[in-house]
Amino acid sequence: MKKKKHISLSTGVIYVILSAWALTTIYPIFWIILNSFKNRNEIVSNSFAIPTGDLFTLSNYKQAFERIGILGAYRNSIVISGIVAVAVVLFAGMASFALVRYHFKLKNVMMTAVLAGMMFPVFATIIPVFAMEASWGIVNTSSLWLSLVSVILPLIAGNLSFAIVILTGYMKGLPIELEEAAFMEGCGPFRIFFQVIVPLTKPSFATVMIFSFLWSYNDLFTQSFFLRTPKQYSITALLNMITAQQGTNYGLMAATVTLIVVPVIIVYIFLQKYIIKGMTAGAVKG
Amino acid sequence: MGANIYKNKKPLWIFLFPAFLFMAVYLYYPFLMNIYNSFQSITGLAHASKGLNSPWYSNYVKLFQDKAMRTAIVNTLIMMVVTIVGQVGVAIILALLVDNIKRGAKFFRTVYFFPIVISATALGLLFNLIFLYNKGMVNQFAELFGATKLIDWKDKSYALFTMMLPVMWQYVGFYFVILITGLNNISEELYEASSIDGASKFQRVRYITLPLLHNVICTCLVLAVTGALKVFDLPWIMFRSGMPNGATWLTGTYMYHQTMITGDIDYASTIAIVIVILGVIVSKIVNTIFKEKDY
Fold it and tell me: Which residue spans of chain A are classified as CATH 1.10.3720.10?
């Protein structure tokens, strides 16, 4: 009897500690949402109150939509991350298929090259990439689409190595019998890839798409290099500008953070299983 | 049979071409070019080189004389210790605790992981408001408890703490999930056998859980120290250009500042090379200390 009591006490302590950490991740978000509905003076004097009655205001949101063009930034971010995610899956999928199924002389060299690609941080490639794209005339232009392309291309390259490592790992485990059957039916390698391999690899493709999308969506470094005018800003570049130019407009900052965080949280709640798997996939395998 | 399908090697190159073209043009070539640039004199992004530096290794000499660079390296090393102790350490404790409970494990997993999904840039703005001197969440909270003096969290004496705490906090959930996955792979029978032998809870953790998690922890540590080298977004938003007075430089933010604000492109390239070399060295060190073991 005594022993049982001891266990339930320690379980209680465990729950208290775990909930304390959970509080540190939930409360700040809750706090910023509350404060996005207050004006500046209330944020710095009365930030714990629930915004009702006189405290409540929508002016921060009005500013976010009218003055800083958050919708355009959203569109740019989604275009960039969406194209990156699709291109990474397609190119990495094709390369992984070739690396797993074909036997050829340079195979090991190419696998090493893929792994080496993961060792180059973006810091060590960005300056020459900028110079190269400048010589092609796709940076420092007023064209929205060209500047989006100038961000999309390096982001695709940056995600490819990791994607190939994950996809080759998965494809190695696929049984070859299905491909043999398709071959007997007269399918060439391209039909085999798109009609046999792609459907079988779907779960891994989802993983790769999710991490390429989120990494591009959250990237500030590359995007602040290439997106220079307000019309071209992605979400992260816009946030960078707001901190530099509107650093004391606390209401606007709270509203912008809320507008950026809330949709992500909603998507996360629905897709959490896949998102968590996607973002930790490569890590567990090594 | 399988060999028959893939005997014709021609399609092979079509499959490989797009991915390797991208990597050649956007990774390998720029990486080599960056090394070349570090010996040149370049005074603006996308400007042509004015020729070799004189002497050609002058940027590398500058690295050792530059006080800000020393701060950046020291801060980055501190950041590594913070990620090891603060991210992986806290994650191990939380994972071991969650392993002991029956209800709510999934809830904690969801809640702990979600800061990683949010961009560090947005979190930077959030923490700017939280640590605001006059007066953010922390100072208002302290006031509720009777503090009379406001603390300037971005002041020199607190700056490193204020910068590193959010970085640490954001990624705890990442290592937590990796460790939980590792914990779930440990067979229940081992625990049953040990409790029949009379092992205490603490002994079970010490002699079964931690040794079996060794390789997973090793992976986490390598990711944590190399991750510390790549930290950029959050410090840049909270402490732009190493403020106050260059106290908060990290290798990443200093490289960005040299490129975008000072315009010393060749020196920035040299800093980028330092980042690569540091990354290789520290992951080697971690791997040697915590050598992967087979059980």
Answer: 68-245
- What ipTM was predicted for this assembly? 0.87
Q: How far is B19 from chain A (nearest CA, A)?
A: 5
Tell me the nearest-neighbour CA distance from B140 into chain A, angstroms.
Answer: 7
Q: What is the pLDDT of residue B292?
A: 63
Burial of B274 (0-12, 13-18, 19+ CB in 10 A): buried
Q: How many residues does chain B have?
A: 295
Q: What distances in angstroms separate CA B168 from CA A245, B34, B79, B80, one per listed residue?
A: 27, 30, 9, 10
pLDDT of residue B295: 54
* The CATH number fitting domain B58-289, selected from 1.10.510.10, 3.40.50.450, 1.10.3720.10, 3.30.200.20: 1.10.3720.10
Nearest beta carbon to residue B121 from set A120, A128, A220: A220
What does the block give as tokens for A93? 């999928």
Block residue for tokens 């606390």: A250
Nearest CA distance, A142 vs chain B (angstrom)? 17
How many A/B residue pairs have CB atoms within 8 Å?
290
Report whether pLDDT(A286) > 50: no
- Which option is the CATH number for A68-245: 1.10.1140.10, 3.20.20.10, 1.10.3720.10, 1.10.540.10? 1.10.3720.10
Q: Summarize pLDDT for B35-84 with one digit per residue, the tens.
A: 999 998 888 888 888 888 878 888 999 989 999 999 999 999 999 999 99
The residue in chain A having the minimum alpha-carbon distance to the alpha carbon of residue B103 is: A15
**pTM of structure:** 0.89
DSSP string over A102-132: ---TTHHHHHHHHHHHTT--GGGTHHHHHHH
Residues of B in contact with A176 (CB under 8 A): 1-2
Question: Mean per-residue pLDDT for A158-172?
Answer: 90
| Partner-chain contact B252 A123, CB within 8 Å | yes
* Residue-wise DSSP of A7-62: HHHHHHHHHHHHHHHHHHHHHHHHHHHHHTTS-HHHHTT-TTS---GGG---HHHH
pLDDT in tens, B69-126: 999 999 999 999 999 999 999 999 999 999 888 888 899 999 999 899 999 999 999 9
Q: Which long-range contacts (CB under 8 A, 24 or more apart) does B136-145 make?
A: B136/A44, B136/A47, B137/A28, B137/A31, B137/A47, B140/A44, B140/A45, B140/A47, B140/A48, B141/A48, B144/A48
